[in-house]
């Protein structure tokens, strides 16, 4: 996990940085609003990265943001196995991600991109497609 | 400390999850609003748990939320000793928690449940009972 | 809509205030974290209230919080009609709220209290009961 | 201005809703993290819309989100005049937006899409292109 | 009340703007973190101002920030009467603000600047001085 | 890194605590708004401190806040080298901080205090001075 807090970046610059981190192989990127000294609204940038992509992400943070340093720490991680199935819906086939722990399915959810595309195409609410793929 | 960030849970589901984590022995649970990719408001779930209850809390996160993984890291912790005394107030006895470091009392505060119950019962503002138990 | 921003209340006191506002008939209450002067994390309290309960809510804000004033403004509101049906699930009957605009059902959702109670009773994840009531 | 607060939507659904509101002509859309009853992290949706597009945006909120009602209020608005010029940079021409009040230029900024495209194309940091278009 | 949301300002610039608005006579200024389009963390600026100082504050927003427009709306306001007394404490006299509604004292609190100065001078925790001025 | 989450402190008390931590040698301090149990808006305090000042900062947290414990963890940190130069501007000399990685300058920014002082003195917008020092 990489972290840096910033009080001298714009939202525009941070939007661009997130895009670059995700294309460089970050597992996930998220921004937390924080309160910094001298009445400054700031942003904490958190990057989850595998050991292979951590150096690349660290360099992007140093180059694209105004930070003078990047912190790093190691977290262990318990990951569920995932499987993909396809749901037949009135709006076409929708990919569904299922999460398993030792052969027990814990939860499942339709993939966002499939649901959003079907919603746009069929002019039907997102929730309606999402629900019809859960049945 | 356990962590997972989520972009596909509702507030309702997270309220239920907090309740379950606290009954399973979590020391504390808090939610941080975070900004995730594709314009998604998300939530970072943080659970503080002793070594004994960490596995149980991890399982609740995997079962009750939509996460595909839970991170874990170890933090050392400096804990103050605590003692309880009772304050006599015009609204009855109120339990007060005192925090000590090597016999020096650092701070004290009336217990929330006692103050809230007396406030409801005597139809007096919360702050008034809180203050009268501090004297 | 009533509003007040506060930099000298504790989270405990705000939790109590929300409880009192909801019992006094507020339609909804929510708290927004805001950045105030002199590096102070503060809280903006927003209360949605009908004309009948606005005065009562305003008085609770003045008595229970440390504010010196409460703002008020009027918003017009478009409300959907709602109907309740019951879903038969393997975990018992679950109340479902349906929202209508001119006889067209826009969306529906199982009631939180019913889902939570069945989840606790049957020791089944919240999401599983929620989904089974949507079918 | 339209508003609705939600505790039973996912981040994914809100990301989709923002996209639809912007294509329907909303002037701006933003999400504020709020604290709702029963320990629920929620989201306040705010839509700025002209009188012509307000009804269309209201309908999207009612159809795509789980809200049972949408509030509306009127704000007056002081708008700066804007003019566009082009900056010649080592990375090509970049469009720059200038804001004027009665012929006095108050501020200017390079357009995000132009800066981001040049940054991707020339593999140069976003800030470097931004600065070179400000000179 | 004046409002503007911004995605292209830094925290540093917003800290400076708050300082200028408060010296120009704003009653209060606060910043709310908001989620804007294209994954941008943004900031909603809210300024409470009397009718006399609203134009001056609006101009500061237009000149010091990157906004292209400022919204304005009118809220009615219920204000408590306030009185000041002095508390004798082991750390000297501390000014205490009392809030009244029709001769009923609703709440009171020691003034921040007095408490902070005594805490610095006597090297005693802020809370201890605050409490001793409440007795 | 030191952390503690709080639900029974006021914003005023937290503003004072930040001031004390920074004078005690903390590298940085920031506050994150978090959602805690029983509908309480809370605050996560994060302190970045060198090994030498960590104990002093921990004691300030225990004495000035209401926390019963402080967590600590170790992060490794990649720091850029920094150099200072002076920019000649129509508003006087402004100090500019430059960040280097192995002799490659990654970014630079005028120092806040210099820009703010010149802006106040010359009654010119902050951004204008900031930009003129970047050229
Ligand atoms: Ni800085
Ligand atoms: Ni380790
Ligand atoms: Ni997802
Ligand atoms: Ni009693
Ligand atoms: Ni105050
Ligand atoms: Ni049953
Ligand atoms: Ni609900
Ligand atoms: Ni080019
Ligand atoms: Ni912009
Ligand atoms: Ni003294
Ligand atoms: Ni507590
Ligand atoms: Ni000068």
From TrEMBL, chains A, B, C, D, E, F:
Pfam families: Ni_insertion. Keywords: Nickel. Signal peptide: none annotated. This is DUF111 family protein. It comes from Neobacillus bataviensis.
